[in-house]
Each structure stands twice: as C-alpha cells, then as structure tokens.
Write a structure and sequence with these properties.
The chain has about 350 residues and is α/β, with parallel strands linked by helices. The chain has one domain: Alpha-Beta Complex (Spore Coat Polysaccharide Biosynthesis Protein SpsA, Chain A). About 40% of the residues lie in helices and about 10% in strands. The protein contains eleven helices and eight strands. The strands form two sheets. It has a six-stranded mixed sheet with strand order 5-3-2-6-8-7, sandwiched between helices. Strands 1-4 form a two-stranded parallel ribbon. A hairpin with a 5-residue loop joins strand 7 and strand 8. Helix 2 runs antiparallel to helix 11. The longest helix has 25 residues. InterPro entries: Nucleotide-diphossugar_trans, Trfase_1_rSAM/seldom-assoc.
C-alpha cells in the first residue's frame, strides 16, 4: 500500500457520473473483497511530506483529487467485488461518507482500528495491525455473504418454511458484519482472526495516481492460482496487496515507511509457505509522497489528447482484458488529477 506511508472540479462539459459500490445482495456472487484505505482530506492531516514542498492546502487538494480517482476505480469493480473504504479512526464515518457522496461516489465506509482499540493495547496498533484487521473483516463479510447466498438455493427435501428461516438467519449474519463498523473498536480488535480461508481480499491506498480497476481485476485473477499478489512501488514498498490467506507475519513488526517493505514482505511470505504470484504480475507504479515524486509522475505522464468523453467507462468486469497498466486509463477524474498536479507544481515553482 503505497510503500506503507503515510477539490478537484470535473472537466468542463462533462458531468461527473455517480459510481456506486453499495452493499450487495447475498446472491450477487462476489469474487473478492476490495479494501481502500483513505483519510478525510483536511489540510495539515493528509500528505504531510508533500505539504513540505507545496504547502498544506495544495497537498490536501492533490490528495482529494487522487482519492476521488482511486475510489472511483475501486467502486467500478462493484460488479464482482465487495468494495469498502476504511478511513482513519481520526475521521468521522458520516463525514467521510458525505465527502464521497458529494463527489458522486457511493461506497460503504468503515473506520480502521483506532484510539479506543489502542487504549486496550500497548503499543497502539500500527499500520500493519490496521491493514490485517481490515482485510480479515472484509474476508469474514465476504464469507457471510457467500453463506447467505448458498442458503437461498433450494435444498431437496427441506420444507419451504425451514429454508426461509435458514435464509433469514444467515442474512442476519451478513447484516451483523455490514454493521460492524459501528461496534466498539475493542470488539473489532478481538475479532480479527480470519475465518474465511481462500477468500480473495485486496487492499490498496489512495495516493497512487496510476491505480486502476483493471489492476484490481488482474490482482483478483492472480489469486485464482496464488495465495498472494503484490503491486510493487518505485520506492521499495507496495501499493497493492492481494491475499487468500491473511498471514499475521506479513504485517507484524514490519519496518513500515522504508525501502525494504517489499523485500521483507516477500521473504516473510516465502517463510509462511504462501504461493506468491510473479512480481511482474502487476506493474511497478509510483506513489506520491513528496513534491519530487509528484514532479516525476507528471513528467512521466502520457495523457492522450481529446476530451474526457473519449475514455472508457470505469465499470469493469473481472474478465476485462489486461492492458499496459503503467499509465492506466485516462478517465475524467484522472485527467483532473493531472491538471491539478501541474497547477500545484507550477504554483510551487517545481515545474
């Protein structure tokens, strides 16, 4: 996830389409869970290293544009994935939902492990603990939905009334997981054991300009034959991690925010006996932490000419063909992100 570190307007003439990743029915046949880590865009609280080079307000504006793009790409996978945004515990869920709704993004939002959970432990949970808890919870939610879907299938010899009762009970279990974000954080922390072996779960962040729905689909396909797939980032970390087994050792005491996160993760995966997809399954991308990162991303961009209407829809199927994903598709939101990036760099004298 972006090496594990820590208000764009729509183009003129284009209407920002509403993209939904709302709760699926139990019979929807979801293939994977997709977890997106995000923060409420507040100056001084997001992209602080970028802010050191371009200012807190500009860094917040950039993060907001990048998050809109990333979350839209994730929401476009709702046809095959259970998509949810897990926000910082310092943010209010209602505020995060309101922010996204204002951008036409209807995505379930849940808090990460936070202060109330931290109060129960010493030391407080780090990024790894939050990632593992979110991935385990997403797996459990997917498993509950699958069980409810199975309950809807007729069982020979079982009375209709009995089957209906069973379906209601399992739907209640799904509802329980859907409402889990409102539970006390300490209860969440006590329930992070993964009980959905082999369920695909993919996690990513919101500071990777070239992330795309096709990459999420490629990661999900890779998990058909592997236990783990990773999207390497240019700084020695990773921007995406897909697992069928959320092994604790991949997250515990990891040297986050260093250039050895990827190599250490791969070493631990091998020790855990995980079948890891080839490292070139997903392209090496750049996450943006500093003004230099941003300038290098802008310099390397090759945005095609033409209006936003020429890009394809963000809605993707799991069988969408693979593409050269080092740049991804230039959706309207990504074009806005590039425009915002150029403006920020110019204002800061970095371009």
């Amino acid at each position: 996830m972006s090496s594990a570190r820590d208000n764009a307007e729509a183009p003129q003439g284009t209407a920002a389409a509403s993209v939904s990743a709302s709760t699926h029915s139990p019979g929807s046949g979801l293939a994977a869970a997709l977890v997106v880590f995000a923060r409420l865009p507040v100056p001084g609280r997001v992209k602080t290293r970028l802010a050191a080079g371009v200012g807190a307000d500009a860094a917040c504006t950039w993060y907001q544009a990048c998050a809109h793009h990333a979350i839209e790409q994730a929401a476009g996978c709702a046809g095959w994935a259970d998509v949810a945004v897990y926000h910082s515990s310092a943010d209010d869920t209602a505020e995060v939902e309101a922010w996204l709704r204002g951008e036409g993004l209807s995505v379930p939002c849940r808090p990460q492990l936070g202060p109330s959970a931290a109060a129960q432990t010493a030391p407080p949970p780090d990024l790894g603990a939050k990632m593992r808890a979110a991935m385990c919870e997403a797996q459990q939610r997917l498993a509950a939905a699958a069980a409810a879907a199975a309950a809807l299938q007729p069982v020979p010899g079982v009375a209709a009334r009995g089957q209906q009762q069973r379906s209601v009970q399992l739907q209640e279990r799904v509802d329980e997981w859907e409402g889990r974000g409102a539970r006390p954080q300490e209860e969440q922390q006590q329930s992070v054991e993964c009980g959905a072996a082999h369920a695909k779960v993919i996690i990513t962040g919101t500071d990777i300009p070239d992330v795309s729905g096709r990459l999420f689909a490629a990661a999900a396909r890779a998990l058909d034959h592997h236990d783990m797939v990773v999207g390497p980032s240019a700084d020695g970390g990773y921007y995406m991690l897909g697992l069928t087994r959320v092994a604790e050792q991949l997250f515990e005491d990891m040297p986050w925010s260093t250039d050895v996160v990827l190599s250490e993760t791969l070493s631990r995966a091998a020790a855990a006996g995980l079948r890891v997809a080839p490292l070139d399954t997903l392209p090496r991308l750049r996450d943006v932490d500093t003004a230099q990162d941003l300038a290098e991303w802008v310099t390397g961009c090759s945005c095609p000419s033409g209006g936003a209407g020429e890009v394809s829809d963000v809605s993707l199927t799991l069988t969408a063909p693979a593409v050269d994903a080092s740049q991804g598709e230039w959706t309207p939101r990504k074009r806005v992100l590039l425009q915002v990036s150029r403006g920020i760099l110019a204002a800061a004298g970095k371009q």
